[in-house]
């Protein structure tokens, strides 16, 4: 008995499947995926991982880190923009990715599995493309939500996964782009967008096996399929973009739980990790709290009242997080980092600084900041926000605020600043 290929029988009978629809969806991803990759690399560079081991969550990256550069403080909204685009576009592309996978699912079950060396390479690129795409989108989506539950650390998994996925994309584009461009020319997009379901016809048979040999009657037009994908992306935009855009749209950010304001008042703006989650309490930040400033062989210890008596400065800066959410510009008040450096003898050029929190454990309880970040006059050890003392969740009694730095680099509950050092092993 003759066995029909998957495209001819069974569940693979949709008359919408074919090279044209697959190629249209692929072209959307071909535009979107490079945007995600570039903004993702920028996000990684913003952590200044080559500055200090404490900042580096992928210490074995090797050649993959050659592109890294010193992250700037100007413009102050750059990280907010690039990471907002990264997360929002990533979520918006989910319907396109799923539709693309649906359109090519017959190829995953095509027989025989390997027909030639070229076919084997195409199958391998397809496997890495599908697996890498699902992995990257899944880990990214989980990181945006309240709890990251994927086994392993998000940073190295997402970073290395992105490079594998990009390699698969480049290989697939090299193998399939000419055929995709030819397929797109077989049907007129404007005509298909005007074609109703009753006049929808299967594409001509193709050698790749996407077009079913025995197509079922259409229950949806290609216009409807593309419209459904577009509507899904638009809906995801509406429930995601508000976390970065802010204003009234913030209330619609249902897929960004970290990005919603926890309350009202000067401290009523989003927070990633609460004091309770970080295991920080009044015993760590109360009357006995002291700030230790070190550098040049000198040590200065300051109470909160002594910090308040130092020259105070203000900066209007947002907080932007890797999850894609950000606040509007908040008005922070406190002591400039470069003035604290001067207390221990760094009067001319501001040096790098190693910042430590009272937080007992967890990622980014300590970070290293570059000299350009310390020297920026807007970089503060903030004591107040919006005219009020910091709340405990926002870092009371003192937190770092640096222009254009990821939220986790703006360390909360600061207990020690070591100028001229970028690692705990170098502290004196």
Summarize the structure.
By secondary structure, the protein is of the alpha+beta class. It has 12 helices and 10 strands. It comes from Streptomyces minutiscleroticus.
| pLDDT averaged over residues | 90
Radius of gyration: 26 Å
Question: How are helices and strands ordered from N to C?
Answer: HHHHHHHHHEEHEEHEEHEEEE
- Contiguous helical run count: 12
Largest sheet: 5 strands, mixed
Overall helicity: 25-40%
| Structural class determined from secondary elements | alpha+beta
End-to-end CA span: 81 Å
Which residue ranges are poorly predicted, with pLDDT under 50 across at least 5 consecutive positions?
A: none
* Quaternary organisation of the protein chains: single chain
Shape: elongated
Number of strands: 10
Strand content: 5-15%
Count of folded domains: 2
Strand order of the largest sheet: 2-1-10-5-6
What order do the helices and strands come in, and which of them pair?
Elements: H1 19-45, H2 78-92, H3 94-108, H4 117-144, H5 154-184, H6 189-192, H7 222-238, H8 242-245, H9 282-285, E1 291-295, E2 298-302, H10 304-309, E3 313-317, E4 330-336, H11 337-343, E5 353-357, E6 366-369, H12 371-375, E7 380-385, E8 388-389, E9 399-401, E10 414-419
Parallel strand pairs: 1-10
Antiparallel strand pairs: 1-2, 3-4, 4-7, 5-6, 5-10, 7-8, 7-9
